[in-house]
Structures are given as structure tokens and as C-alpha cells.
Amino acid sequence: MKKLFLPLLGLLLLAACQKDSSSPAISEGIESEIEVAYDNLSVNSRSLVYVNLEADNLVAYIQGLGLSSSVERAITRRLDLAVRRFRDGASTSTVISSLNSIISYVTNQSGHNIPTADADYIIAQIQVLVDAVSNGTAAYCTDGDNDGDGSDCNEDCDDDNPAVYPGAAEICGNGIDDDCDPSTPDIVDNDGDGYNCNEDCDDDNANINITVCDATTYNNENLSSGNLNGQDGWISRGWVNDIPASYITNVGTVQNGSLGLKSVSGGSGVGTSGSKLENSDWQMPDNIVCDEGAYFEFEGKINQYGVMFGPGYDQNNDGEIGIFRGPERECPVFFWLSAASSPIWGVKLVSGGDVYNAATVDVSRVGAIGDRVKIKVVIDFQANGGAGSADCYYQNLTNGNSGYQPIAGLTNVPLALDFGATDSSNPGLWNGMAYHFEGLGAELDNFTFSNCK
Q1: Mean per-residue pLDDT over the chain, rounded
Q2: Which residue, among 438, 410, 57, 153, has the nearest Cα to 271 in the 3D structure?
């Protein structure tokens, strides 16, 4: 937008209303609107005020008022002198003194040889120049391209910023007139998905936007008693290297009276792992970069060596998710519930499969061996520089707790998530759940995942 627009618009409005001194109410209302708009253009829309361009605009305005030739010359000549002094490098005080002389003259003529509303407008625009010279934001336009963006200062509404010029892309919500056209909206919906650019994390892709909170629960009720392996897409194995095959997880009645997963293999170094990928009957909620976070929760019975559970991604496409034992560790975050107290055991939140350096507390923070507890892990995707953090909560159902309580020592636990990764650390790729049992007495049931915190 060229800088003549607002003053000329003011002239058109004034002409349309046939403004004269006999209609002060109409004149003052129009002038007030023009003054606000012009001031916003001069001060807010760009970092520099070009003294000669503003003076040219003001001269055109004054010449359209029909003032006496002597009054018109007195103002325009004073204004020309101030501009030349600024151009020639006169001191700030000298230039401001020249501008203030115009304000004094117009003030004295106001209501006599210059209609009051017109005088107020002229004074306001001179004051814009005074302020710009005083605070160092005044410049002289020589029709050059100061910032090298291809638009000279006659067209460029900020000739010190190469990103701002006529035709530039408007950047959403930055409060800057990037394209030098105030009619261009600052906030739009570029991809037409119903979410504006200031709330859509990818406004060039209609398939990515703020999702509605979604939660899915898997309660094991469609399983049958007996070996879990092979039921409803579950794969359950002993470790390591799937030996021996007799190490299994059973489906059976758990402490809450419903069907759940139970460890039935015991002994030193005995464990079973299992996983289930999403299918047509059960899906993980979609996690996308727009989401603030997610959570997962489950019910478990505390045994000596451990109940582990979390979301994951089958990154090697072998049909299952490795959580703990063996080379495959495809669960980027999982909860470990154990009554043992050696360095590797305890109640902990494991990030990136690193069980030895995971945040760990004693089982007494949540209960005791044999207790049925409900665990909730709330993930904040934005925390920790975008790598995420988690807060862990528990509800001891055996003791009759009525709601979740934070687990002291397991809050604000740093994670290592990355929405740009191609492995399980990318929450957008999570496509299933996995568990691991260590020893006898472990139980799991009622798995819930949500893409909301």
C-alpha cells in the first residue's frame, strides 16, 4: 500500500461530506477517524517514518483544504524547510525546532484561518514527525531500496526489513503488515481445515490440525482363559530368544474380578513379554505435533520383580513390539511396578529403554506387594525442549483410594521423544502396546490411551 492512501482517503471523505466550518461535528468525527488510522500507519505498521514522504502527503492534504494562499504557503514552506534540514543532516534539535514552529503557527491560526478540526489533524501529523526525529526512527526516502527486498521506500512500508514489502507473504499472527497491505488479514485458515493459522500447527496441511481429545480402552473381556499368545492379535513370548516356550502369560480372572493378563512362570530370571498392535477392533489415538500431550493408564498387581507396561511402535515391522528383554526396545516410555529394592528394581518410569538410569522410587510410595493399583502416566509433549516430560500418578485400589495421587519422585521426568524421528521415539508413530512380567504374581488389566493430557 502506498503512503498516499490514507491522506487521500481523508480528502475524499471530506469532499463527500462538503466539510466546512459550519459543520464542526461531522468534520471532527471524520478527522478523528483519519487521525487514528494515519497515526497507526505512521507509528505501528513500520519501524521507520520517511519524513519527506509524510511531508508530501501532508502538503497534498493542506492544498486540498482551500485555505488562503498566505496561510497555505506559511505552513508548506515551514514544512519544506524542516524536511531539507533533516535531509542535509541538521541536528535533531534544529529539525525539531523547525517542526515545532509549524505546530505553533497552526495552533495560533486554529479556529480563525484554519478550521479547528483541520488544524488538529495537521498538528497531530507534525507531532508524528517530531516523535520520529526524536526517537531516531525518522528517515529520508531517496527512492532507493534500503533493505534489498526489491521494493523502494516509496512502496515499502518498512524499508529496513527485507521480509516486509508489497506482495510478501503475510505471516500469521505476528502483528506486522508483511505485504504492506492492511486489508490482508493477519490470521487466516490457509489449508481450509477449519483451524486458523494461529491455532493450527501445520496450516499448509489440511490433515494436520488440533485434534479432538480421544481415548481408547482395552479391557481384555474379548479374550478367553488360557494362553494369551495368538489371541486377538497378542503375541506373548518368554525371554531371551523366546526360550523356553513354556514361559507364558495366561488370560484369567484378576483381582478386580474381570479377565486380565497374569504371569504364571516363575523362578530366577524368568519373564514373559507380549504386545498387541492396533487393528480394526482397537486403535491407538493419533498423536500429532499439535497435541499438547497424552496419557496412558493401566491396572496392575504388584509382585516382587515387576509389571511393566507402555505404548510403542513396531519399527522393524515384525508384527510385535519389544519392550524390555533382548535387542528390540520399541517402547520409548514405560512404567515399571516392582516391590524389589535392588538398583534395577523398584517403581520407575523408563525412558528410551534405559532401565538402569530411570527415575526410580520405593514401592512404598504406591503400596505393597500384592496390592492392586491403578497407574497413570501423563506426558507433556512440549516440555523439556520438545523432548517431553511425564508425571506419574497412582490409585491404590486395594486400600480404597478414591482418586489419583502424584507419585513423589516421579513427576516432571524428562523423556526423549521426537516427532521428527522415524523410530519409536516419535509419538505420532505409536501403533500398539507392550508389557513385560518378571516372575510370578503379576497382573495387568484395563489399558487406556489418550491423546490429551
Answers
A1: 81
A2: 438
Domains of the chain (ranges; CATH) run 5-139 (no CATH), 215-450 (2.60.120.200)
**Mean pLDDT, rounded, for 74-89:** 92
**Is the pLDDT higher at 162 or at 13?**
162
Beta carbons of 328 and 316 less than 8 angstroms apart: yes
* Cell numbers found for residue 184: 490482508
Is 126 strand, coil or helix? helix
Instruction: Compute the distance between CA of residue 277 and CA of residue 236 in angstroms, rounded to an integer.
Output: 12
* Residue of 322 and 290 predicted with greater confidence: 322
Spatial distance between the Cα atoms of 159 and 46, rounded to a whole number of angstroms: 8
Q: What is the pTM of this model?
A: 0.59
Phi then psi dihedrals of residue 422, to 5 deg: -110, 10
Measured CA angle at 214 (ends 208, 218), to 5 deg:
130
**Taken in order 152, 58, 2, 132, is the CA torsion positive or negative?**
positive
Looking from the CA of 349 toward its CB, the CA atoms found within 13 Å total 26
